[in-house]
Write a structure and sequence with these properties.
There is one protein chain. The chain is an alpha/beta fold. The protein has a single domain, classed as Rossmann fold, CATH 3.40.50.300. The protein is globular, with a radius of gyration of 17 Å. The chain has six helices and seven strands, in the order αββαββαβαβαβα. The protein has a seven-stranded mixed sheet, with helices on both faces.
Length: about 210
């Protein structure tokens, strides 16, 4: 899809003061280290080296912005939960991530990536607790789905959907099994993420039965 293929690296930010201006439309990608976030971004954009994939999970310490044109950005958030780094650095990442999810006005939607075999870790749940009060839409990519056979995959999908329903309530939500290796879920993920940039228009037609 040309919408994603035009993505280009824009800038990187290591703290709140170095973020680009808070304007335009941003869709952020979040996930535990080693959940396959960078590989997913590369597949979605059909660019093998757009997002940096490290052999050492948790090494990415910045928020990276990729420009899609017309004021639209994909935002690659630091992975969480694995890096062997000093406690002070981990606390900085945690605060930076929390501030971005809670306060960034340009953030219009979130793509949360979770390994389908190890979903909804305590850190995933913590991230959702930061984000959910904003009431903005959410897409879940269950990565590495090629690692499970069809039966276990469907069972895992149902269990995760039920658990997410308890967490998110009525929040708009889409859950997509995804594999960067087999390319399963690619088209569905592209469509869902593109919709985050262009949500359906609200029906503003007056209801004659509505009370003033």
């Amino acid at each position: 899809m040309s919408f994603f293929q035009q993505a280009r690296f824009y800038t990187t930010a290591g703290d709140w003061t170095s973020l680009p201006p808070d304007q335009g439309l941003e869709i952020a990608f979040a996930g535990r280290s080693n959940a396959g976030k960078s590989s997913a971004i590369n597949l979605l954009t059909q660019q093998s080296r757009l997002a940096y994939t490290s052999k050492t999970p948790g090494r990415t310490q910045h928020i990276n912005f990729f420009d899609l044109g017309e004021g639209r950005f994909l935002v690659d958030l630091p992975g969480y939960g694995y890096a062997q780094v000093p406690l002070a650095v981990k606390r900085h990442w945690q605060q930076f991530l929390s501030d971005y999810l809670v306060s960034r006005q340009s953030l219009k939607g979130l793509v949360l990536l979770m390994d389908i075999r190890h979903p909804l870790t305590p850190l995933d749940t913590q991230l959702l607790q930061w984000y959910l009060p904003r009431g903005k839409p959410l897409v879940i990519l269950l990565t590495k789905c090629d690692k499970l056979a069809r039966g276990p995959r469907l069972a895992a999908l149902r269990a995760i959907q039920q658990a997410l329903h308890l967490l998110t309530g009525a929040l708009p939500l889409e859950v997509i099994p995804f594999s960067s290796l087999s390319r399963e879920g690619l088209e569905a993920a592209q469509q869902a993420i593109q919709t985050l940039f262009s949500p359906p228009a609200l029906n503003l037609t007056a209801d004659p039965n509505a009370h003033p």
